[in-house]
Amino acid sequence: MEKRVLVLNMDHSPIAVITVQKAFVLIFLDKATCLSHYEGMEVRTVNEVFSYPAVLRLNEYKNIPFRGVLLNRNNLFRRDKGACQYCGSKKNLTIDHVIPRSKGGKTNWMNLITACNRCNVLKGDKTPEQSGLVLQSKPFKPSLVFFLSEYAERQAEEWLPFLGVKAY
Ligand SMILES: [Zn+2]
């Protein structure tokens, strides 16, 4: 499988994840410097063999406003580690509004959680208190680093020193 490349701004704050092809373009155009390689991996062209970049740092500071992590089903499930936030089940997952929409509950990171179908039906149009269900953790708005760390732990340990996260 092709590995992704982490891009840091000049001040070392993580800003993007790109393909290895894009990474080589940035390196060849002298727009970025490679800080870390994937060990034991290489990229071959017809004539040459290169180390496989893992982390790049831009050579110039880019002012990129961070708009936040996209709120969608996949990202919500990832934030909640693929488990129902009421009972912990990992099956038949759905999205639940903690405060139901009918009671003014918003559709945002703070009011949406992963819930299994059973708990969702049990909860119905009630608040957790009214339905007797207990939230196992408080919903939060994930940062980019949160998702990068989650990916890094599974796919790209080389990123961890650059995310302020300890490797195992
Ligand atoms: Zn459940």
From TrEMBL:
InterPro entries: HNH, HNH_nuc, NA-targeting_endonuclease
Residues making up the signal peptide according to the UniProt record: none
Top-rank lineage group of the source organism: Bacteria
Organism: Belliella filtrata
Protein known as: HNH endonuclease
GO molecular function terms noted in the UniProt entry: endonuclease activity
Keyword list, A-Z: Endonuclease, Hydrolase, Nuclease
CDD domains noted in UniProt: HNHc
Gene3D superfamilies cross-referenced by the UniProt entry: 1.10.30.50
Domain HNH nuclease intervals: 71-121
Presence of keyword Hydrolase: yes
